[in-house]
Amino acid sequence: MRFSAVIPVYNGAETICRAIDSVIAQGCNEIEVIVVDDASIDGTLSLVKEQYGNKVKLIALPQNSGSSVARNVGMAAATGDYIVFLDADDSWVSGKIDAVSEVLRDRPDIAFLYHGYSLSPMDRPDKELDVTPRKLSYLRLLAGNVISTSCVVLKNDPVFRFSTDMRYCEDYELWLRVSYRYGAYFLDFPFTRLYRPITSEGGISSNRIAMRIGEMRAYARLPRLNPFFLFLVPLLWLGSAAKHVLKLLRIL
Fold it and tell me: Could you give the CA distance from residue 111 to residue 229 in angstroms, rounded to a whole number?
């Protein structure tokens, strides 16, 4: 069983080595590291070349195209059985790939697996972990995105690609698509550390209005999966707008 770690990066010179090192530190020879540089202008490309050489498959995009395109390019170049995502400013906890491998060996039917994350330093505990995968309710996923991209493992299949016409919530749109057809399974341990909250300042998701519009666009595509969703989409839009208003009220 081989894994391809896809790491998109744009102007990530300060954090990209930490991300790559956390993949290499898994101590597994069956991990292919793919870094897709999205036309960085801060020296990220030369840094990765100098630090890692042929340890990393480095792909340079000619112009900035967004994370959807960057991830898709990395996925297209992947040779592993499974694709494991990591953002350039996050890192993995030791033992992640061992745990994921154990699950997928027992459950080869799982095409979409994810796990929790932590905002604090984490080490895998000495005691044996419960790596029993639990299926995520589709209704729970419809209520909002609970899945961080840096926590996702997908079977390497050309069907699983991000929508390149979406700059916001493109990950959520893919999770809705894949989990509807194949299900999504959860491991209850934070194998990824995020170095800032998902909607914190500085990240693409900090633009809350654009993120909310992206969520609504993801809902608008649900009828492509099943015509029944035509009746549900207006309710999901209303719920999305209500969540936005409630968050604004908390900020004020």
Answer: 23
